[in-house]
Each structure stands twice: as structure tokens, then as C-alpha cells.
Amino acid sequence: MKSERKIIPFPTTVSEAEMNTALKTMYQEAATARSTDWVAFIEEIATEGRWYLKDAELFRDLFVDWAIFYETDEQGKTPHGRFLEQVKDDMSPSLYRALRGLADPVPSLFLVEEERVVDIMSKQTYQTDLAEIEVEPGDLLVGKLLYISGKWRFAIAYMKVAKALVPEVRILLADFVDEVGEDALLRQYPEFCAELIDLLLDIEEGNIAPRPE
User: Could you tell me if residue 166 is inside a domain?
Assistant: First the structure.
């Protein structure tokens, strides 16, 4: 498990295109190296519930965003850490520093406000570009933020929760943290996402009536 580190300022000499190319390579190499274990875990979780294909695909992407940065192997290395070791001598110091800073912050739940989101766990505020995400103030976004070219953006996957359902999600999160501990979203983020998908399906299918706001 990775401990928290200070966020490393994004080097101004690194272009967004450079970062996107490096990120794509990192994700591809990690998926190739860990494919057997990851597929087995995703299939195990997905088949425990009544998920549709779209739910399984969403969980897969949320899991990968977490596993890249926080899942450790038998040597205590994350895919992110191993990738940095492999490419350090072949890339510019500025690109290396930019990639190294991507592990923070950890995945979380972010309350949408005007032009920003607030991490409901840490209360930290992030100025984000939400133009490509159809959300309204009061909605909740679940995912991993990346700091690229001076901007915060969500990684490959995020889950959107409508404002009306946020009270239910807050209760689920509180129960999960009580059971797992304050670092629950760092250690067991995939398991929380699975429980959240189950909850939203229960509400969608009428098995649970959402509480009033």
C-alpha cells in the first residue's frame, strides 16, 4: 500500500500530448503484466452480483485506475512504480517528475460545485474542467483525479451519482469506512465501487427507495 506523498508540481515544460502518450503506455504495460490476476478478480466480483455488462465494464475501468497506482505485487511495487523504474533513463527529467506525481490524490468521492469538486473524505478542493462531464452542482463523482498540464481531470473511469442519491451513498461510505478504516478508499477502493454499483442497481430496480435529501 502506498503512503501519502506531497503532490509534485507539474513541470511546465511537459506537454499534454507527452503525458497522454506516457500514460497510455503505462496502462497498456500494466494491463499486459497483470492481466491474468486482474481479469480473475474482476470476473469474481462481477459475477457475485446481478450486474449488466455496462456495470462490469465500469467496474473494470474503475479497478484499473486504482490498481495502476496502488496495487502492490510480491515485491511491494505498484505498476506505476515499476513503469517509472523502467523508463527513468529514457525520458526527460521533467516528464519523469510529472508522471511520478500522479499517484496523489487517492481515488475518492467528489462533490460537484461550480467549476470545482470537493473531496468529501479530505475536504480538499480541486479546480477541474467538467465541460466534458454532464453534471450539476450537488452531484457526486467517484474516481481518481490526475494532475496533467496544470489541470485536474478524472482518469479513464468515473462514476456519476445524481444529487438525489447522494444521501444513500454517504451512508454507504460511512458504513464502509467504519468497517475498513479511515484509509478504506486507498486499500479497498474496488470493493467500495462494487458495493456502490450494487446499491445503485437496487435503487434503479426499486428494491431500495432513496432517502429524501
Answer: yes
